[in-house]
Amino acid sequence: MSETTTRQLPFSSKMGFGVGQLGEGITMVVFGTFTLFFFNQIIGVSATLTATALAIAIGFDAVSDPIAGSISDRLKSRWGRRLPLMASSSVPLALSVIALFNPPSGMHELFYFGWLLVFAILARLFLTLYHVPHMALGAEISSDYTDRTRVFSYSQAFSTLGTAAFAFLMYTFVFPTPEDGTHGLLRAAGYPQLAAIAAVGIVISISLCVWGTLKEVPYMPVWEPEPERLGPRRVWREVREALGSRSYRMLLSVMVVTLLVLGIEGTFMAYLYVHFWELDTEQMRWLGPVGLVGLPISVMVIPQLTKRFDKRRLMAVLGACVIINMNILIVLRLFTDLLPENGETLLFALFLVSSFVGGLLAPAMLVTFNSMFADVADELEYREGVRQEGIIYSARSFVAKAAGSLATVIGGIALDLISFPRGAAVGDIAPETIYHLGLIAGPPAMIIGLAGLSFYLWYDLSRERVAEIAEALNQRKEQAASPETAPHSAESASDRGAI
Fold it and tell me: What averages of pLDDT result for each successive group of 10 residues across the chain (499 residues)?
């Protein structure tokens, strides 16, 4: 058996790959939690305009994903296919985040719309140059069914750790409750500080990832593509080849529904914490760290679960639990009298329990999900004879961002439809508006999210199927490496479909 299939991936390389997710996690917290709230509640731009700008930026970003994937798949350098793009993205991404939260004062609403649009587009484009090669790197750095789950476990661990630590630092030191009792997130001076801290974390994370995985370049699979100019036809052909896998299409379908739900809830998150639940930043800061308590359990257990259970069934159960956990408190508040009143210690304790459960389940779900895309990469290599992790993860990213774009627009329009006021203090908003905020955030997300899990019924890459494909690929590589069998190593399309 070839070295690429027997060599054990070193712990240091797994750590190097994992730490790269920290910077991406910080960026997503900045966009998912703070950006809409800052421009709507602090700057005073309407929620619809703010959401539209963010959605347009995500749309530009989504279009760039397949291009970044195709470039990454075909790039040749002494650093391999993935690392050069990853390394070149860090500083521009950091500078774009800093600029985003430092607009000039006293300008018209449309100026701020343009400012948000330009720097959100730039930040997301540079994030794509990092995200797509990084995900592709995770798929090709290991070829083992279970070890891939371990690799992405490290990535998810750093993502969860980084986002929780970043949120804790922000709520504790940047957005503490002022002496006048107003909510910390309404303090305008904190947002430039947030951006600066995020920028430092982004640069450090990406740099450590590149340095930590550089030694793996000689062991990664090499694809020698036929020379072809980059263009829409080439990108579309490669995407179409990837979409030929039914399992891939089903994974993308689940992702559309799930991220649409999560995106809408992310749009409302800060509003819910501040106004629906009336949590102050001293309480909000503990939600992330409590979630971390479940993280090591999740990271240790999920590789064992994927050994015992098919990933498809495991994902259906995990997804249902995550969706219910995210929305159950909102539903109980809206339709029952079971929950304590806002401000009571027991209610905050329930939030801590929910955060722990989320920290236990969500990383396991995301790790398994990413490893399923790596299995699809093997299936496509078997069918098409090429390694296309870049295209696979870029199309995944495209779909995710398209869903996120739609979710942002829906969330922004919904806030304006319920006439949610700008810059309002806690307790100054009409009770019916608060009720409507919960109504648009909780029940629809639970219903749509649970229904979307049905797409797993048509995912057909079972453990046995993945093992058969891996064995066939190993045999093909051994034949290609053998001078005696090299002339006979090519298989016809019908031979590839025999498994």
Answer: 55 88 89 89 92 87 77 75 88 97 94 97 92 82 69 81 89 90 89 97 95 82 57 69 81 87 84 93 91 82 82 89 94 96 95 92 82 82 72 74 79 90 85 95 91 87 81 78 52 44
Taking the C-alpha atoms of residue 264 and residue 442, their distance in angstroms, rounded to an integer, is 10
Q: What is the pLDDT of residue 487?
A: 47
Crossing angle of helices 47-74/232-242, nearest 10°?
Answer: 90
Burial class (CB in 10 A: 0-12, 13-18, 19+), 350: middle
Domain interval for residue 465: 19-218+239-474
In angstroms, the CA 32 to CA 266 distance is 6
Residue 341 lies inside a defined structural domain of this protein = yes
**CA terminus-to-terminus distance, the chain:** 20
Predicted pLDDT of residue 488: 46
CATH of the domain at 172: 1.20.1250.20
| Positive or negative torsion for Cα 362, 365, 368, 371 | negative
Q: Is residue 490 part of a domain?
A: no
CB atoms closer than 10 angstroms to residue 6: 10
* Total number of domains in the chain: 1
Residue 489 lies in a domain: no
Residue 312 is assigned to a structural domain of this protein: yes
pTM of this prediction?
0.74
Question: Is the separation of the CB atoms in 274 and 185 below 8 Å?
Answer: yes
SS (H, E, C) the chain: CCHHHHCCCCHHHHHHHHHHHHHHHHHHHHHHHHHHHHHHHHHCCCHHHHHHHHHHHHHHHHHHHHHHHHHHHHCCCCCCCCHHHHHHHHHHHHHHHHHHCCCCCCCCHHHHHHHHHHHHHHHHHHHHHHHHHHHHHHHHCCCCHHHHHHHHHHHHHHHHHHHHHHHHHHHHHHCCCCCCCCCHHHCCCHHHHHHHHHHHHHHHHHHHHHHHHHHHHHHCCCCCCCCCCCCHHHHHHHHHHHCCCHHHHHHHHHHHHHHHHHHHHHHHHHHHHHHHCCCCHHHHCCHHHHHHHHHHHHHHHHHHHHHHCCHHHHHHHHHHHHHHHHHHHHHHHHHCCCCCCCCCHHHHHHHHHHHHHHHHHHHHHHHHHHHHHHHHHHHHHHHHCCCCHHHHHHHHHHHHHHHHHHHHHHHHHHHHHCCCCCCCCCCCCCHHHHHHHHHHHCHHHHHHHHHHHHHHHHCCCCHHHHHHHHHHHHHHHHHHHCCCCHHHCCCCHHHHCCC
**Cβ distance 355 to 288 under 8 Å?**
yes
